[in-house]
Amino acid sequence: MHIKQVVISGFRSFRNQGEIDPFSPKHNVIVGRNGSGKSNFFNAIQFVLVAPRFATLRQEDRQHLLHEGAGSSVMAAYVEIVFDNADGRLSVDSDEVILRRTIGHKKDEFFLNRKRIQKSEVISLLESAGFSKSNPYYIVQQGKVANLCLMKDSDRLNLLKEIAGTTVYEERRAESLKILADTTNKQDRIVEVLSFIEERLDELEKEKEELTKYDYLDKRRRALQFMLYDKELSKVTAQLESIESSWSSQMTDHQELFSRLRSLQDEAGEVDDALSGAQQGLDRLLTRRVDKVEECRTAVEKRSKLQVELQEAQASENARNSALEECHIKLREVQSSISEREEELANLEPQYTAKRSQLENLQLDLTESQARMETLYGKQGRGKQFSSEEDRNRFLQNQIDSLKELIKNKNSLRTRLQQEIRQAEMALKAESKELKTTEKDNRNKVAKLGELERSAKEVMRARNGYQETRKEAWRLLESVQEELQERRSELDKGKHMLNSALPRNVSLGLAMVERIAQEKKLGRAYMGPLIDNLVLRNEAFRTAVEVAAGNSLFHVIVDTDATAAMLMKELERRKAGRLTFLPLNQLRVHPVFYPESGDVRPLIEVALEFDTAVAPAIRQVFGKKLLAKDLDAAAKYSRESQLDAVTMEGDVVSRKGGFEGGYQDDRASKILSVLKIRAATTALSVLQSKEEDARKRAEAADELVTGALRDLQSIEAEQCHLRSNTSQASKEIASRVRQQEIAAVSLERRKAALRALEGEITTARRQVEEYVAEIQSDLNVPLTTVERGELHALSERVQTLHSEIGSVEAEVLVLSNTRERLRADLRDNLHKRRGEIYASLASLGDEKDAGDIERGGGKRVQTRGSTQIGVGGGEEAVVRAELERAEIVVRELEAELEATDDKILHKKQEVSALEQELDGLRKEEQQAQEQMAQAAKVQDRLLNKRTMLSESSLHKQRQIRELGSLPRKELEELEGMTDKNLLAFLKEVNEKLKTFSGVNRKALDQYVSFNEQRKTLLDRRDSLRNDKISILQLIDNLDLQKEEAILRTFQGVSGHFADVFKELVPEGQGRLVMVTAADMVEAGNDGQTGELEEKNEVSLTTATLDEDQLSISSFLGVQVKVCFSESGQQFEMQQLSGGQKALVAIAIIFAIQRCDPAPFYLFDEIDQALDANHRNGIARLIQKQASSPESPAQFITTTFRQELVGVANKYYGIALQNKNSRIYALDKRDALTFVTNLMSEEEAVGRTLVSDVANFSTKERTRVRAASPLSPFHEGVEEGKVSSNLQGDGLESDEESLDYGSDADSRTVRASFIDEDMKAYADEGVGIMPAPTRKRSRKTRR
Description:
- By secondary structure, the chain is an alpha+beta fold.
- Helix content is about 65%, strand content about 10%.
- A hairpin with a 2-residue loop joins strand 6 and strand 7.
- The longest helix is centred in the first third of the chain and has 215 residues.
- The C terminus is likely disordered.
């Protein structure tokens, strides 16, 4: 076992030291300057291991341990040690054990492997691993070596006793002495009590005889009193039986009166409820009558309004028919004129076309003739015009070219005209086709308007039917709602009855838990009250079930206790009542064995039906209940079967012997209230379904009416849209007809222009041919005869053509004017008039004829008049139908109003009859109450008398019971005596009893009791005597064991000390000597007080080992005797120098450790006062023990010297920065460098101090030594001596003189200084000097 890691947080100078690099299981050395935190590190380990100084901490002690460096204050600290437990030395089942201790201002806690444990458990665990409180030398801090150096012989003896564990023996011896003292005290008290008991027994012997005589007379007196009391009790009992008979008769009469009163009250309540219901019905009828009157008034107003609308519609229809007739007449006239004009125009058109063609032909012929004449005339004058043929030909050729260019242009123009003509013809055909399509669509729209009119009438008829259906649905809904209101009233009454029968907190809790279950959506986890989960097989079992269950009927059934806990928490949070829950998972119902008899049956099987899911809860309440046919059977079987029995009337016999029963008021019945609530809830559910159906039907009817109105509006909108479209289409058709006529005229003009252009082209070609022929002829050749004849004929022909053309043009003009006049009359007059007439027809509602705008529509004009009258009469028919329905509604409302008046009259009669009946019942109820009051007075008198007699009877019975048990013989002797004789005998006995004054009635019992106590005390005295002997033996045994332990420990430590000293000083030897009282006496007789002779010392050492001749009381101390050479002088401890003392103290420490080995050791600068040779010895000793194969141990040491560093296995450094210590791992070279540099600094400071000291006078040295304070690191050092961590090592001096030499081996004064935190000590100029060695006497100091 060894320490692996140490974690420190918030402890003294360590603010937050994380995990340190794991320690070696052998030797670990820690270096650092003074004040860096080495001692705090050792303190941290002792803190965890519960060292005595850290065992009990006050609040100020805990505060002192907390880190107080820079930064925020630390509120808590902890130290954690990780042990390697591979060897199982710690009784923990783990190879690694983590022990942590945490402190704060108010806490001190321990943790083992992260689990909290008690301090006592930690101490026990550590002691089992070898960390004994009696041997604290496995941790050696600064000052402990110095303390050992300065110990007296007696102190070393005490240390030896502590190591030997004598504290345990002393504690047990003190405890035994305390028990011995208690035992002695108890013996003394027992002797005193026994003396008192002996005296009291003598007195009780005399009192027993007197008590025997008194008991005889007392029995006689009690027998006489019993006979007197018994006779008086018999008289009282007879009187009570008479009164009970009268009481029973009175109770029967009272019960009958009470039953009659309850019957009257129930009947009056029923009549009152009926009266309330009738009054509510009357109020509803009156309200309904008001509504019906209002509806009837509204219907009459609507009927009157419809009558006025019908008259207006009839007048409007007549005016409309007249206007339609007039429009039709005008339309026929205009249509006739249009037909005539169109016929004239059709006849005129061929004439105009023929004349036009004739004119065009004449004009073409004239043009050709004139061109031929011009050609001939030109040919005839060429010879005069030109001087040569070339000029002529050039001129002719120019003419030919011009004509060809003209022909070319004309051909292009002709081609374009032909293309335009073709396009115009195609456009005219397409327009004609589209116009026909438009006219067809318009006719379809007009037909659609007629269909829409018919659809509107059908929708209106359907709407009227839907309105009637809606009225019926709303009437049914109103009736269902009235009945629903009545059932809700019954439900409220049932709930009121139930709430009045239940405690308030239960009723509130039931309501709230129902709401919570709905909010939490518990579903099947919440099953409701017990009463909601059972059904009565028969109404006759109601009273028995209710009495048997009591308030358990309203215990709430849930699935698990978790649900119950949640609901209870919610109820408590909302402060809404208190309930009892039955969690099914926690119910443990044991089987019940029912008696097999026809007189009783299990109530749960006979009376109840329930779901198997809630069977445990039902059996929990009703499992131990029997249903008995009568009270006798209930009492019998309840006692035999240990079950509660209940009768059909509600009388209960408890299995514990109790009886309950009496009249059961149905008005306070919880089950009856629940049944009423269930019935009302069921009826309410049915009515709500009916209401929902009626409401759906009414809403469906509303939707149908709304749909019909919506359809009607849609139809009207579509009609309006179609009328607008047909009107727009009519205008568009007329416009397009006019455009078509204009296009036709334009086409004719283009065709005429084409014909003229083709004639011009022909003439030009002929002219070109003639010019070509002329070019080929001679210049001066005259016209031929044929040409001259042709020229003459052409001249005459031109004149004739001019005359014909003028005549034909005149005819064409006449025909054209006539044609344009007819067209203008049709277009601007007749067609406009027809359009205006159609617009009038459309405004009057004759869409069909208004849309017939096509040409040739006159064929249908003759049949339109009658059609329009039929169509126009639709509005009047609609109004008439509305009026007929209004008449029906008025008649129905009047009939309903009359029926409502009849119901109101009947209801008033019913209310009056109920009021009369209620008054009669109230009177009878008052009479019954008066009779009951009279009967109550009689009962009160009987009750008072019975109470007095009962008290008297009880008094006599109590007197008889107080007499106690009586002998039968005495009673038989007194049985036949009269009251007078009994009284005489009683007086005589009382007189005799008066002579016995101050009789001890408990003398016999006291005598027996004191005898038993005497025997017990004698046994106890003997037992205490034996205990005292055992305790004395135990004390002697403890003293013997203590002496053995001390001697055994001394032998072990002494032997190990000799071995260790031999290892440290190979040429020397050391031993421990036990000093006894006999040695001191012998030394005194020899005149020596300081030391013993060699011969005596040997005998002393031998004597200390003789356990039979010595006792612990003779041990006075332990001396240390050492020599540092084989033949050197032996020295005692006080004769050694400081370094030698330190070496001897370290040897003692190692001897103690070997005597009681620990798994690890912590040494804090134990080599500070040693020279190099002795430090090497300590280093070898530590290395040997750390590497020992038999009992290896771990060492953690701190040092300023190289020797311990050189033999260590791991190295660590401690640094202090900003008042925060940190531990870090080093390598061997860094550790050696650090201690070498530190030693160099100390030697430099030491040389300076020595040179200063050499100049001091003796007086100045004394003054400086007196003024210099002792080192703060060593307390308890005697004045004038130096024992400091700043002191040099190996200092010695001559016996007679003071020597402050500067030899490097043993007389050099060295001083080391800590870091900046300790500079104040150095600044004061304090030098540390070796103390002079004085010659001492050989006497041993006491």
